[in-house]
Design goal:
alpha+beta, two-stranded antiparallel sheet, single chain, Serine Threonine Protein Phosphatase 5, Tetratricopeptide repeat, globular
Length: 298
């Protein structure tokens, strides 16, 4: 969004009618990005949960909005409400990004050991299993209801919220610095819920990188140093998308999360991509809201 569009969006987001108008006049990823920007604004972060809730009435299974919704509730100190909402979103097949959001909820509610466990599980790159989903829903509902023998006690650590809860007497202690690494990326990563299938290029798919396993696999096909970017990807400092044909990576795209401009677009052994195919795919990524209209300009 331009500065004028952001100003108008800030005006619209304050009412339900305005939020609906905002969703009708922008792509879903532009609105998700705006919700992420609201999260980072001390003056306006309380509006982020409202925007996400409205968005999810129109797009009920859009995981990036779920992530921002839950994380923004934690941001404003509504940790039990975040648990209640997260329980409703938790199910088999959720992505590693969603699991990292749940790790933050568990940490904020005084369960650092469980938080680290689900965070480390997300690092494998695998989707959430049915058994994991059932267990997490039970835990999140117990937190939200503060029932089942839950004891309240303050927890000193990286997440400073009062009246946290502990569900298990044997919850292991974790160093504050370990828990501090669980913050979710500032902006929702596009294409985590569904890769982009090209309509113009046969058997070509664009997939977001959101795990160490994925980036290492891409590096093995591309024969370059893309794995060295994992820390930047993990922190949300940069986005990397892999272009695949028949499921095999043959190009990688680095995108700036805020400007949505292409920083790098490289093929195998860092060779230049085919310009015609690149232009075709870039247009599709712009239409999907992954890139902005001037994404290829320097």
């Amino acid at each position: 969004m331009t500065q004028d569009q952001l100003t108008e969006a800030l005006r619209l987001v304050r009412t339900q009618e305005g939020r609906l108008q905002l969703l009708r006049s922008n792509t879903i990823y532009e609105v998700a990005q705006f919700a992420g920007q609201l999260r980072r604004s001390a003056a306006h972060r309380e509006l982020a949960p409202q925007l996400c809730q409205t968005a999810l009435t129109l797009h009920p299974d859009h995981e990036p909005f779920m992530n921002v919704h839950v994380a923004s509730l934690v941001d404003v100190g509504q940790t039990r409400n975040a648990s209640r909402v997260a329980a409703g979103y938790t199910r088999a097949g959720r992505t590693p990004y969603f699991m990292r959001t749940l790790a933050r909820v568990l940490s904020a509610n005084g369960l650092p050991g469980s938080a680290v466990q689900i965070y480390e599980r997300s690092e494998t790159g695998a989707l959430m299993t049915a058994d994991e989903a059932r267990s997490l829903v039970i835990t999140l509902r117990r937190i939200a209801g503060n029932g089942g023998g839950v004891q309240q006690r303050p927890v000193v650590g990286a997440w400073h919220f009062e009246n946290r809860v502990e569900l298990e007497d044997d919850e292991p202690e974790v160093a504050p610095t370990q828990v501090a690494t669980m913050a979710t990326p500032a902006l929702p990563l596009p294409l985590t819920d569904r890769p982009l299938q090209s309509n113009s290029l046969q058997k070509v798919t664009v997939r977001a990188i959101n795990s160490r396993q994925q980036i290492d696999r891409a590096a093995s096909y591309l024969k370059n140093c893309i794995s060295q970017y994992w820390k930047k990807v993990k922190s949300g400092e940069t986005w990397i998308f892999v272009v695949e044909r028949d499921g095999k990576p043959y190009e990688a795209i680095e995108v700036h999360p805020t400007t949505r401009k292409v920083l790098q677009w490289k093929g195998i052994k860092n060779c230049a991509p085919d310009e015609k195919a690149k232009s075709t795919l870039a247009k599709e990524l712009i239409t999907a809201g992954v890139l902005n209209a001037n994404s290829l300009s320097r």
